[in-house]
Amino acid sequence: MLKELQPQPKDKILMLMEMFKADPREQKVDLGVGVYKDANGVTPVMRAIKAAEKQLWETETTKSYTGLAGDPAFAAGMRELVLGDAVPADRVAAAATPGGTGAVRQAFDLVRMANPDVTVWVSAPTWPNHVSILKHMGIPTREYRYFDDETCAVDFDGMVADLDGLKAGDVVLLHGCCHNPTGANLTLPEFKKVAEILNAKGAIPMIDIAYQGFGDGLEADAAGVRHVVSACPESLVAASCSKNFGIYRERAGVLMAIQEDAAKTAVAQGTLNHLNRQNFSFPPDHGARLVGMILADDALKADWMAELEEMRLGMLKLREQLAEELRKLTGSDRFGFIAQHRGMFSRLGLTPEQVEKMREDHGIYMVGDSRFNVAGLNEKTVPLLAKAIAAVDKV
Ligand code: LMR
């Protein structure tokens, strides 16, 4: 029977990682997968994570199972980090998941349980794996306009016009901050407008927040999420700790279901636990526990926040440097949006052929839709990228 299996399409982002590794050229720059790298090209273990790991090693007395929803300190810490005091704690059901992707997957499962006819609306474009998971699960999707290729900014009028087609019970997937792949983000007034539309239509927001702290800062990056969850009677939030805690391989994420009242929240909590049990039983604990420890300890939290802020400011500086280099090289502000975008990614608006040319002629790797990872750059590689963009842009 297994011989009937068909080859699956390769994930385009992960395929780039392999291609980059296999490239023998010394002069090559990896701007593909969304992993933070410092100026030396290293993805560091953050100081607070190391300190928490040491503490955990010294104090942990068992590796027995946690609860199905994971460590309660992790859930409480993440609730506070992402939602602040936007909604009372007794309206938030939360369960740890294997990474942010696990939270997204569990969220799709949950909405399908609640509404077997659900349609999930995604931004055009969105993280390709959103669409891939939805397709794998057989959940119908619709796109709403989001990114204007001409201006490289959000096409908010187009988004509002498309959301007019929502039906009651549909789910609208939003990026909390640092939109992946475009880097173009909704403003707080735009989040407010979206919440109004969803409420008027009886649709439910699902917010994927995987880069909190990488855009305008931890609080500012959560402002849209906090508004939406407070303005809508029901919502879902899938949060990742991979990037902002730098614990990619530990797979730490959380799915939060915000309900109207405590009784409904208890049912949602039971459902999240049930879904974890069905899909993988207990969620991974190590990364989540470290996050829970950091968020509950003032000194560790302050150190984590300081290091995260250094990372964010470093990325911002690289954005400004690149926009400036391109301004000089092209004699125009055409690429000025790079300094306006926020987060790890920006979409340059190059064709797939131009992206391929960047790879072949210049050893610069980025996703085919011209998404590049700002954190893959450093002061020395910014000019290389700028020259390569200017060169292929003329072709
Ligand atoms: C990305 O978009 O590059 C990251 O979210 C990593 C991934 O899993 O695709």
UniProtKB/TrEMBL annotation:
Q: Is Transferase among this UniProt entry's keywords?
A: yes
**EC number, UniProt record:** 2.6.1.-
List the InterPro entries hit by this protein, alphabetically.
Answer: Aminotransferase_I/II_large, Asp_trans, NHTrfase_class1_PyrdxlP-BS, PyrdxlP-dep_Trfase, PyrdxlP-dep_Trfase_major, PyrdxlP-dep_Trfase_small
Q: Which UniProt keywords apply?
A: Aminotransferase, Pyridoxal phosphate, Transferase
List cofactor names only: pyridoxal 5'-phosphate
Q: Which domain of life is it from?
A: Bacteria
Q: Where is the Aminotransferase class I/classII large domain?
A: 27-389
The enzyme class is: transferase
Q: Which family does it belong to?
A: Belongs to the class-I pyridoxal-phosphate-dependent aminotransferase family.
Q: How does it assemble?
A: Homodimer.
Q: Which NCBIfam families match?
A: PRK09257.1 (NF006719)
Protein name per the record: Aminotransferase
Q: What is this organism's lineage? A: Bacteria, Pseudomonadati, Pseudomonadota, Alphaproteobacteria, Rhodobacterales
